[in-house]
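Example (one chain per record):
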Amino acid sequence: MRTPRTPQTACATIAVALLVAGCSRSDYATNANAPARSTSDSGEGKLVMWYVGDKADKDLESLAKEFEQQNPGVTVRITTVPWDAAHEKLITAIADGNTPDLSLVDSGWMTELAATNGLRATPASIRPWMFFPGSWDTTTYKNTSYGVPFIAETSVIHYRTDITAKAGIKGAPARDWAGHLKDLKAIQATAGKQNPKLRHATQVQTGRNSWLFWLPMVWQQGGNIYDATARKFTFDSPAVTESLEYYSAFFKDGLSPKDETDSGQNFPNGLIGTVQRGAAGTGGDFHLDAPAPDSKWQTMPLPKGEQAAGLATGSDLAVFKDARNPDAAWKFVRYLIDVDNIAAYADASGNLPAVAGAWYEAKQGDDPRLAAFHTQLQATSGPPAITTWHQIADVIDSELEKLADGKATIAQTQQALQAKATSIGTGR
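Predicted structure:
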């Protein structure tokens, strides 16, 4: 049973989170461009919301029905938009001025949508400190928030306790980078001996989406890849050099496979000893879909260098500039992020709540495997808030793949990243 938290304790916890998340790009922007009250609480009428996902979210629809019961003047209509069509559909809707009132938006799309001037600024009455710093970070563009965090996501290290024990590791692998690599080498040394199924100590992403795993390594060394004040890329910094050294060590020392085999299967099958995964792996593939080794794995926050750092992803709630019923939209947003409501949604759906205080109300707070996510979410940041980010991310993926394959040195990788990113620029 969780220990009840007083409001003062909860605020103190969140205050600590602000100090820890020094890499956050927004530093809790005060939303200077947002009106003190851009909407009233008396919204009524039809509210149209898009939900981005491959199937209807019954838990969200259940909350919508409860909202309608408490607000008889509002009718909520939720339309499911498949992931593979959602980005283009949102961009087209904004361009045509034919948007819904509200949508759940992948956090990675927020900067691009905000730059189109298609979103409404978040009312100043919605306080940033309610949310995990990195989650709020994903809503900000040019020091103004254009959405509200709803589903939080980040990744942590999952490790097989049966495999690590045979490598002489007591408890979790070391959390400092030097010690962590040492422990991975100890795990690798047991392959084919104490651990006959084991092929690699870990599995690090290479190729597509490898930036998701590498970017926090830069932050962990106390650096960044982009200077927002000077509006220039900093891939030529010492922190980037250090991060590339750590990344390349996984492949140079044979600690990770170079191909893109399915880590979701390799981990429960005992082919790898550790893997960096998001919460979907914790509650889904590793927990429900692979019950046999369920008692043999645990989680820990990401390794750290000068500081703890992780990548904030997830989904945000955004109200559109061309919304026909913005008052009802903001009213529903406030209902969804109410601590009790979002905690109930998190427990029902398995998603992590972006509202920090909801962890003390949700049953998820009792799950020891989710404790690492709670710790990690207090030290996360979003990628640079530039409209060319997806192009930059593709460059990072390509150059990291060359490094992993041994087709480029660290110096060559660093030079290529700096030159290609500078050539692409930052967009609007």
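Caption: Residues 51 and 374 are 25 Å apart (CA to CA).
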